[in-house]
């Protein structure tokens, strides 16, 4: 008996100490952003920099940080959180511990918990971030935990509660999304390899299901819709029960990860022609000395690289902020054509002329295009497997339209967007130059009727009730 | 030390009893009062069974402790007593539990029939289900019939779709068609005290009558995969008018064609 109890207690101690050891190791708790395979294909000097000049990795880290210490690159159209204010009156004396803040018209004074820090943007205290001990929303008085080193003056710009949205987004993302989409948004979380289709790799900055036109990025609204309603037919579930501010924070964080990945890709693209491992091997084989290549790289990193980074940032800022404007939104010039057997018949004709190539005559997603071998994008060879490949190098089947499952949403406008503007990152092209808006609506009507067809092309007798009548048809 | 195990087995029933007595006041109990009348009866059964197993647990543990204590108090020279093979003991511990189980089986029959046997369902539910509640890894997909139509097992052109949120009217029995698209799931509404497995290939009607408007949680109660914990949904119980308005809103959203008439130009 005593032997048994002795063994029992010994085992308990081992288990506890093992868990303590695991819990205490610092590296076990910290996570980091990974770099893309394209970055790894560069020579080490281009990845990590040379002679004090930043390479790709440092360029990215300086602007985006790591999951523990996120950085806000103010150039980017991301709401990192925080409200801009200015110092109301110049505080008297040195070692300032209390400041009065005022807000521009239209900005409401944030309440309570939202004010955890004050960050000085301009003036003598610029660059300082002070923790807030207490905050009075009415008078705008912030009491700081410790005194400032510089003395701010009236009118100095400050940001209060900076970074709160993105930090909140990170926590929620790690909890709900990272196990599939990965900490870096590379679509390679621990569960990813068991899923088909694969979770989205955001680092291309491309999202498939959008309401924006073919050349635009996804809007915040698009990402939020996907979060709320999920993507039926895939493993992306609905997060409808999260609160609006939680969804908003996740969307901002996903955009942050997308922009980080895209920025990294843009930098690598600049360098990969001359400084990829393969290219350097080629050059040295044809007689160029490696030291010469390194010298050229050093010169490029010194003189041009920060300009490259800046313009890459500008491009990102432009593209992502445009996506949230009305100009980027798909706006049909005519309303949906009333759903009728005639409209479906016309839709079927148009469908057969273009869509059946991929989606098949009966809409099962088995058109002749699905059996071809495509060319690899950056090599003179073919993909090993037949089928249509997407931006991420995966085979994507054209949707089987007979099942009534619509990944990008089942509203007529959702289908219209996909037909008119294409599906970004896939082989589904935009048909806006081929079909008139009216014709697209005919195809929408036909496609929505496919799941109910008795046999291909035989339109069901009943028509979906309460379809809105297009104004043109009503007149 | 010999008496340690006797005390050990006496100790746990005491802990269990203390925890059970404390539980309701500490909020370690059910999530609020039962939201449905059926739930009240199901909770009654739960409490009955809890009472029976509590008595059994405490009784057997005290008996076990008593036997150990007796043996430990005996001198080392006393021979052990072997009860193995005692015909009367075997009879007692077979017949007594059999009667207890038979009692439970008979006692719960009414509740079971009303909850599960379709001919006992309330009259109002016999006109059809208000929605299809389709479990899927890892969410609940809801399909309503078009306004004024009845729900069909197969998807219909005018059906209205939603995910993770079910709106039903308060104060009358409603029925949903529980289904699953992939593996086995279980519909569990803890506040309503309702639980029903969703089995692949079956359409299982589940009815409930929630008198009080409000939001009620739904979770999955069958370990269905790595994302099991993600399967949260809510049942929104509201007035019939509110449900009707919600359906109209759903229909409007679902027929959205994105066309905006330039009203300013016409004026």
- Sheet with the most strands of chain B? 5 strands, mixed
Q: Helix tally of chain B?
A: 6
Secondary-structure element pattern of chain B, one letter each:
HHHHEEEEEEEEEEHH
Strand % of chain B is 15-25%
The largest sheet of chain B has its strands arranged as 3-2-1-5-8
How many E strands of chain B?
10
Bulk shape of chain A: globular
**What is the oligomer described by this structure?**
heterodimer
How far do the termini of chain A sit from each other? 94 Å
Poorly predicted runs of 5 or more residues of chain A: 1-25, 462-475
Largest beta sheet of chain A: what is the strand line-up? 1-2-5-4-3-6
CATH topology of the largest domain in chain B: Immunoglobulin-like
User: Strand pairing plus helix content of chain B: what structural class?
Assistant: alpha+beta
- CATH superfamily membership of the largest domain in chain B: Cupredoxins -  blue copper proteins
The shape of chain B is elongated
What features would you describe in this structure?
The complex is a heterodimer of chains A (475) and B (267). Chain A contains 16 helices and six strands. Chain A folds into three domains: 83-162; 184-325, no CATH class; 341-474, Cytochrome Bc1 Complex, Chain D, domain 2. Mean pLDDT of chain A is 86; it is low at 1-25 and 462-475. Helices cover 40% and strands 6% of the residues of chain A. Chain B is an alpha+beta fold and 267 residues long. Helix content of chain B is 40%, strand content 21%. In chain B, the strands form two sheets. A five-stranded mixed sheet of chain B has the order 3-2-1-5-8. In chain B, helix 1 (4-26) runs antiparallel to helix 2 (37-73). The longest helix of chain B is centred in the N-terminal third of the chain and has 37 residues, at 37-73. Chain A binds chain B through residues 1-2, 176, 179, 191, 211, 229-230, 232, 235, 237-238, 240-241, 330-332, 334-336, 404, 410-413, 416-417, 441, 448-449, 451-452, 460, 462-468, 470-471, and chain B through 1, 5, 136-139, 141, 146-149, 155-158, 161, 163-165, 226-227, 230-234, 251, 253-261.
């Amino acid at each position: 008996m005593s032997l048994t109890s002795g063994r029992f207690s010994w085992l308990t101690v081992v288990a506890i100490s093992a868990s303590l050891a695991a819990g205490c190791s610092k590296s076990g708790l910290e996570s980091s952003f990974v770099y893309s395979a394209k970055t790894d294909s560069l020579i080490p000097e281009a990845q990590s920099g040379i002679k004090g000049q930043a390479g790709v990795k440092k360029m990215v880290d300086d602007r985006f940080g790591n999951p523990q210490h996120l950085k806000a690159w103010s150039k980017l159209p991301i709401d990192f959180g925080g409200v801009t204010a200015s110092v109301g009156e110049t505080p008297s004396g040195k070692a300032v511990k209390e400041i009065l803040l005022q807000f521009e018209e239209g900005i409401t004074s944030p309440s309570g918990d939202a004010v955890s820090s004050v960050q000085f943007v301009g003036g003598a205290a610029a660059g300082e971030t002070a923790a807030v001990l207490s905050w009075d929303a009415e008078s705008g008085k912030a009491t700081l935990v410790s005194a400032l080193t510089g003395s701010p003056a009236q009118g100095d710009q400050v940001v209060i509660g900076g970074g709160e949205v993105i930090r909140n987004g990170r926590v929620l993302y790690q909890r709900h999304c990272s196990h599939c989409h990965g900490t870096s948004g590379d679509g390679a979380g621990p569960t990813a390899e068991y899923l088909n289709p694969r979770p989205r790799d955001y680092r291309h900055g491309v999202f498939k299901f959008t309401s924006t036109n073919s050349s635009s990025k996804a809007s915040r609204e698009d990402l939020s819709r996907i979060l709320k309603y999920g993507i039926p037919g895939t493993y992306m579930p609905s997060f409808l029960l999260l609160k609006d501010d939680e969804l908003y924070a996740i969307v901002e964080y996903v955009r942050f990860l997308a922009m980080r990945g895209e920025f990294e890709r843009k930098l690598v693209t600049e360098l990969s022609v001359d400084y990829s491992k393969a290219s350097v091997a080629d050059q040295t084989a044809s007689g160029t000395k490696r030291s010469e290549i390194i010298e050229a790289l050093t010169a490029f990193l010194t003189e041009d690289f920060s300009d490259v980074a800046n313009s890459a940032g500008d491009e990102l800022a432009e593209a992502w902020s445009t996506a949230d404007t009305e100009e980027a939104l798909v706006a049909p010039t005519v309303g949906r054509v009333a759903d009728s057997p005639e409209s479906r018949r016309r839709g079927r004709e148009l469908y057969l002329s273009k869509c059946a190539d991929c989606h098949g005559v009966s809409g099962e997603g088995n058109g002749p295009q699905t059996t071809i071998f495509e060319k690899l994008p950056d090599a003179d060879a073919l993909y090993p497997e037949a089928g249509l490949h997407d931006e991420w190098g995966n085979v994507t089947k054209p949707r089987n339209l007979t099942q009534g499952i619509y990944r990008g949403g089942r509203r007529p406008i959702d289908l219209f967007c996909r037909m008119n503007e294409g599906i970004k990152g896939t082989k589904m092209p935009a048909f806006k130059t081929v079909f008139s808006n009216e014709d697209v609506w005919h195809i929408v009507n036909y496609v929505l009727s496919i799941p109910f067809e008795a046999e291909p092309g035989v339109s069901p007798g009943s028509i979906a009730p309460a379809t809105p009548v297009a104004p043109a048809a009503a007149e | 030390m010999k008496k340690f195990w006797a005390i050990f087995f006496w100790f746990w029933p005491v802990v269990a009893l203390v925890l059970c007595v404390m539980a309701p006041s500490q909020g370690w109990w059910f999530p609020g009062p039962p939201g449905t009348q059926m739930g009240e009866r199901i909770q009654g059964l739960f409490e009955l069974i809890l009472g029976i197993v509590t008595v059994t647990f405490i009784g057997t543990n005290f008996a076990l402790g008593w036997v150990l204590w007796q043996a430990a108090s005996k001198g080392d020279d006393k021979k052990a007593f072997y009860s193995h093979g005692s015909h009367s003991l075997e009879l007692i511990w077979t017949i007594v539990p059999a009667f207890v189980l038979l009692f439970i089986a008979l006692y719960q029959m009414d509740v079971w029939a009303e909850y599960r046997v379709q001919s006992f369902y309330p009259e109002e539910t016999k006109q059809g289900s208000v929605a299809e509640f389709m479990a899927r890894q890892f969410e609940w997909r809801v399909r309503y019939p078009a306004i004024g139509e009845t729900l069909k097992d197969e998807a219909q052109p005018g059906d209205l779709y939603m995910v993770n949120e079910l709106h039903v009217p308060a104060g009358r029995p409603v029925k949903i068609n529980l289904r699953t698209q992939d593996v086995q799931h279980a519909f569990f509404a803890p506040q309503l005290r309702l639980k029903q497995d969703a089995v692949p290939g079956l359409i299982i009607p589940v009815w409930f009558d929630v008198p009080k408007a409000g939001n009620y949680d739904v979770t999955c109660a069958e370990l269905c995969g790595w994302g099991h914990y993600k399967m949260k949904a809510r049942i929104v119980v509201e007035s019939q008018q509110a449900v009707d308005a919600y359906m109209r809103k759903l229909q409007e959203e679902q027929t959205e064609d994105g066309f905006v008439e330039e009203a300013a130009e016409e004026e």
